[in-house]
Design brief:
15% strand; 3-stranded parallel sheet; Rossmann fold; methenyltetrahydrofolate cyclohydrolase activity; methionine biosynthesis; purine biosynthesis; 40% helix; binds NADPH dihydro-nicotinamide-adenine-dinucleotide phosphate; THF_DH/CycHdrlase; 11 strands; 284 residues; single chain; THF_DH/CycHdrlase_NAD-bd_dom; 6-stranded parallel sheet; alpha/beta
Length: 284
């Protein structure tokens, strides 16, 4: 079997066009959805991510503010900036690019962001809302992975979904979203004994470990949908995922490539969450 490739770039374009229609409808009512992105320090990767988020807003005609603070910004000053943006009616979505410098407590930062504007979905109130089935904002990367499954027509209800990884930003919310979509969900971690026993039983396999090419074709159930969240930079400068694409695509029914799979969806879902926040603020 050769897997159907789930084209994240094409699906991201399609989803952005859908959200642009909703953003334009808000604009007709005089509301421009607004996103504020705060970055503290000079981390080059974070600067690229923030630049891409601001660029995506501009492409869809959203209002955005990019607030770059120096690395020695105090925790109190950052919290004051967040409070100011929480109260700013032009801003519907607010995020602080992680990681923040070590002298700042990232939990305090996440908790300071108003749950109504927390478009990353990391505030514990929104994490709780997701796990009690009253979701307000789904964290962008798992939301993007779910959207890929849905757009590719992968059946989810009643299927066995195995998520490898339990981070707060990918693994755990991914498992919650799959559970909400009525999959039977297993979460595996670095402590799981006999990982292949679980992966070989997965109808849907989501891999988010940060371990390059660790899932090989012999670990995949024939016909399974394989979502590779991993982004790893190899010695030759190329990107690869946590799945060995070449062997996996011979066994899987669907597979996401890296790059060009989950990656393009993350910022797209940030846009979606920002537009939703603006709709809610307008009482829609
Ligand atoms: P973390 O390092 O926070 O979490 C990794 C998880 O994988 C942990 O739960 C860990 O288990 C588990 N794990 C590690 N090794 C193994 C193993 N051998 N077997 C089973 N489980 C294992 O990573 P993130 O969740 O933040 O990111 C995961 C990957 O996704 C990275 O490659 C990252 O770059 C990428 N990513 C991509 C995004 C995108 O936009 N496409 C966005 C965010 C992340 P334990 O808890 O036991 O340590």
């Amino acid at each position: 079997m050769t897997a159907r490739i789930i084209d994240g770039k094409a699906i991201a374009q399609e989803v952005r066009a859908e959200w642009k229609v909703r953003a334009d409808a808000l604009k007709e009512r005089g509301i421009s959805p607004g996103l504020a992105v705060i970055i503290v320090g000079e981390d080059p990767a974070s600067r690229v991510y923030v630049g891409n988020k601001v660029k995506a807003c501009a492409e869809l005609g959203l209002y955005s503010e990019h607030i770059a603070l120096p690395a020695d910004t105090s925790e109190a000053a950052l919290l004051a900036k967040i409070a100011e943006l929480n109260a700013d009616p032009k801003i519907h979505g607010l995020l602080v690019q992680l990681p923040v410098p070590r002298h700042i407590d990232s939990s305090k930062v996440i908790e300071a962001i108003s749950p109504e504007k927390d478009v990353d979905g990391f505030n514990p109130i929104n994490v709780g809302a997701l796990s009690t089935g009253n979701m307000r904002f789904a964290p962008c990367t798992p939301f993007g992975a779910m959207t890929l499954l849905e757009k590719a027509g992968v059946p989810i209800e009643g299927k066995h979904a195995v998520v490898i990884g339990r981070s707060n930003i990918v693994g755990k919310p991914m498992a919650m979203l799959l559970l909400q979509a009525n999959a039977t969900v297993t979460i595996c971690t670095s402590k799981t004994v006999d990982l292949a026993k679980f992966t070989r039983d997965a109808d849907i396999l989501v891999v988010a470990t940060g371990k390059p090419k660790m899932i090989t074709g012999d670990m995949i159930k024939p016909g399974a949908a394989v979502i590779d969240v991993g982004i790893n930079r190899m010695a030759d400068g190329k990107l690869c995922g946590d799945v060995d694409f070449e062997s996996a695509k011979e066994v899987a029914g669907w597979i996401t490539p890296v790059p060009g799979g989950v990656g393009p969806m993350t910022i797209t879902m940030l846009i979606a969450n920002t537009v939703q926040a603006a709709e809610r603020a307008a009482g829609l």
